[in-house]
Amino acid sequence: MRISELVDRTGVPLATVKYYLREGLLMPGQATGATQADYDDAHVERLGLIRALIDVAGLSVKRAKAVIDVIEHPESDLVRTIGRALEELPPYGGSDAAEYPRAKRAIEALGQVYDPDYAAVAQLERALAAAEAAGVPMTDDRLRAYGGAIMELAEFDIGNMSTTDPADAVKYAVLGTALYEPVIAAMRRLAHQDAVYRALGGSS
Amino acid sequence: MRISELVDRTGVPLATVKYYLREGLLMPGQATGATQADYDDAHVERLGLIRALIDVAGLSVKRAKAVIDVIEHPESDLVRTIGRALEELPPYGGSDAAEYPRAKRAIEALGQVYDPDYAAVAQLERALAAAEAAGVPMTDDRLRAYGGAIMELAEFDIGNMSTTDPADAVKYAVLGTALYEPVIAAMRRLAHQDAVYRALGGSS
Predict the structure, then answer these.
(1) What is the interface pTM, i.e. ipTM, of the complex?
(2) Of the candidates A102, A196, A197, B136, which lies 20 to 30 Å from B113 by C-alpha distance?
(3) How confident is the model at residue A204 (pLDDT cuts 50, 70, 90)?
(4) Domain B1-56 has what CATH class?
(5) Of B79, B113, B127, the CB nearest to A186
(6) What global pTM score does this model have?
(7) How far is it, in rounded angstroms, from Cα A64 to Cα A67?
């Protein structure tokens, strides 16, 4: 299809499509003349991913480009590949600390893999330190209860992920992380409300 | 104790303590003279809460004041009281819609209480709409799996909450929501990593 049809089908304005082409987020079409190129369904799909990353998940163009680079050049190790893509998602923050004592202790208590290079380790350390500073430190009981429930969420997520196609796996991991964290936060607030109703003996 | 000792014990600068007094976040001390007042442990504790809300949870002074107003003037209904306090937490966003079709469907499918006035309902609607727009809509399977795991988290939280002292319950709900959502998000990312290792047959 011509670029004008790509604009029609996706609703992305022509100037924006050209910008994504220049920045390398959208792959070039097949040249059909000096100033014309042919686009296909892969371009429609890519534009959908770019809009999801930028407009819905709130990534900068630079970070969206980094995610797409990972999709186009996956490493042979799928865990590393996904880890690199997830580093482009918020929250951003210094991860140059040498040690993550709270995170290490929690991860090891849960019997999970501890890899300080994985960005979520620094993220957990900051979150645990903040809870501690606010006077509501993580307890062993809470860690155990949360760990089990959160592993259930994660097992479902990974059970539905392709482990053979790295591009699909990265897309799924990035969108599933960026877009389902807010869903989970809202669902937990609503579950609290429901649980309080029941704790107070109200009918729900 | 004198205000200077309150400053020493909490590490909150004198000018900040005076500002919180003026704004009504910190309750006045017991007057002991024309320009002196006596403070006690309740003031130390309140300053800890104010710092947690503002410095750690990132609330504005105005929103922290609103949380404290709820603590000082709870409604007779504990669910409403907590709901009012939780409205001061991010994410903020228009909740003037008349209907929340995606949230309503999800909440009813889970058999939970649907109360469109509860801020988390609008929050869930926005999160589900964003996931849908990004091409990863909530499925029935995912809703069921998430619903069960998230209710486990919530049951633990509520099981550890005072249902007799509204002030304690509000503090616990606000800090537990603001400070544990980032912990849960980080733990889920780490559980993903662990589950991928295991799915790929790696040793963890």
Answers:
(1) 0.89
(2) B136
(3) very low
(4) mainly alpha
(5) B127
(6) 0.89
(7) 5
